[in-house]
UniProtKB/TrEMBL annotation:
Protein name: Serine aminopeptidase S33 domain-containing protein
GO molecular function, one term: lipase activity
Recorded superkingdom: Eukaryota
Stored InterPro entries: AB_hydrolase_1, AB_hydrolase_fold, Hydrolase_4, MAG_DAG_Lipase
Signal peptide per UniProt: none
GO cellular component, one term: membrane
Coiled coil: none
Serine aminopeptidase S33 domain residues: 68-304
Pfam families reported in the protein's UniProt record: Hydrolase_4 (PF12146)
């Protein structure tokens, strides 16, 4: 019967999934929301893009640095979110001398566009490059260092922009639970892709609450937030994210930029193994993993963020 014995790796993966699936949001984890601020400036630059023949406006945000900025940190938010979800992090960075900027993705937050619709990763990345270009022009195209940072889909965004190159003065990327390794099988991904092609805008699946954070207070706050996307997820959006996550797995060896990954062991949306896989495969000479065994997916809102922010600031300051 040795033929049917599971390998140590198979056993490890099963145990990992069992631990993740067993983790539940509980009242004992209720803590105040760490994000109690918003970006003080909105629409500091004009971002107009095209969607299906219509011109739409994307909402932009800025936290000015205290004193002359040491560097620019571009923040990118996750799916169904908006950029004010990271305002508490941006505030700490700004107080430490960093200029922090971001925008709400088309169809999310305060930005215009088809609600909840992510037509393609390429279009999203094009919006991000335009934003980076406009901010750097506003800064006089100086040699000020640039860092990219994001949570989940925003982490994927930062990763793909870094791998794609052509970001002037890029000094590093900060990836919070980046969506660059999926927990779905190839069969599941194929099915998702097919449905996204056949019925791209059909309102299909209501986002399941309590899957991103162990803290019920955060879930309740997000459900009351008028700018957090609450409606059914659209098949094309699901397909774009899922397929892009799988594609990222083949790009680890192309990441030469300095990076830090903040990853939790109880992440239900992305594979926690991505942190160490990226560490093993990325040829970058400057790579850091901050791994928290009991951290869930929504790193920006988990209580561990109070420990993470000082470490990220230290990482940034060593690379400017």
């Amino acid at each position: 019967m040795q033929f049917f014995q599971k390998s140590q790796e198979q056993i490890r993966i099963e145990q990992k999934l069992q631990r993740i699936n067993a983790a539940q949001q509980e009242e004992k984890y209720r803590k105040p929301n760490p994000c109690q601020v918003t970006f003080p400036e909105e629409n500091f630059i004009e971002m107009i893009v095209q969607q299906e023949g219509k011109m739409i406006k994307l909402n932009t945000y800025r936290f000015q640095a205290t004193g002359k900025p040491k560097a620019i940190v571009f923040m990118f938010h996750g799916l169904c979110a908006h950029i004010n979800h990271c305002a508490h992090i941006a505030q700490k960075m700004a107080q430490d001398g960093f200029l922090v900027v971001g925008f709400d993705n088309r169809g999310f937050g305060k930005s215009e566009g088809i609600r909840g619709y992510l037509e393609s990763l390429e279009i999203h990345l094009s919006d991000c490059r335009l934003f980076i270009q406009k901010v750097q022009e506003l800064q006089g195209n100086s040699n000020i260092p640039v860092f990219l940072s994001g949570l989940s889909m925003g982490g994927m965004t930062s990763f793909r922009l870094a791998v794609g190159g052509n970001i002037p003065n890029l000094k590093g990327i900060i990836l919070y639970a980046p969506a660059i390794k999926t927990l779905f099988s190839n069969l599941q991904i194929g099915t998702i892709k097919f449905v996204g092609y056949i019925i791209p805008k059909y309102k299909l699946i209501k986002p399941k609450r309590g899957q991103t954070t162990k803290n019920p207070q955060i879930t309740e706050d997000l459900m009351k937030d008028p700018y957090t996307y609450q409606e059914e997820l659209l098949p094309r959006t699901i397909s774009t994210i899922t397929v892009s996550m799988k594609e990222c797995e083949s790009l680890y060896r192309q990441l030469h930029t300095p990076w830090v990954v903040i990853q939790g062991g109880l992440d239900k949306l992305v594979d926690p193994d991505l942190a160490y896989m990226l560490e093993r495969e990325s040829p970058s000479q400057d790579k850091t993993v901050l791994y928290y065994e009991n951290l869930w997916h929504d790193v920006w809102h988990e209580e561990e963020i109070h420990d993470i922010i000082p470490k990220v600031l230290q990482w940034l300051n060593k690379r400017i």
